[in-house]
Write a structure and sequence with these properties.
Blueprint: H1 3-18, E1 29-36, E2 43-44, H2 45-58, E3 67-73, E4 76-86, E5 101-113, E6 116-123, H3 126-133
Parallel strand pairs: 1-6
Antiparallel strand pairs: 1-2, 3-4, 4-5, 5-6
Length: about 140
Amino acid sequence: MSIEAKKELVRRFYETIEQEDYDALDAYCHKDFVFYPQVDQPFPGVAGLVASEKKNFDAFPGFKMPIKTILAEGDQVAVYFIFEGTHTGIPFHGIPATGNSVKFSLMMLLRIKDGKIIEKRSHVDVNDIIRQLNS
């Protein structure tokens, strides 16, 4: 799989998330997929990713997360994007919907195997999000 094909796979993966089409994520993820929202907290499988992340996305219905930069080398793809949403959905980290808009950066590192994403590592400053919700 070429570097450009790996980047396109990751772009489509994030477009699917942005469209909140969680049932379609299996098409992009390896059967041994693991999501790490923190260094040592693995969530195995697409079901683990959805269980971990959907509650965050559901707090910000209609969110957008345009990719600003995507880099790839070997079997890894790094993605930098900006998440934008309004907290009108379910509580986020125990904070009831505030109606506040948030904008924050995310950095992801994904690993590709056999033409699919096998690992996703997330780096986000949750305290920045909470600060925006409380202001």
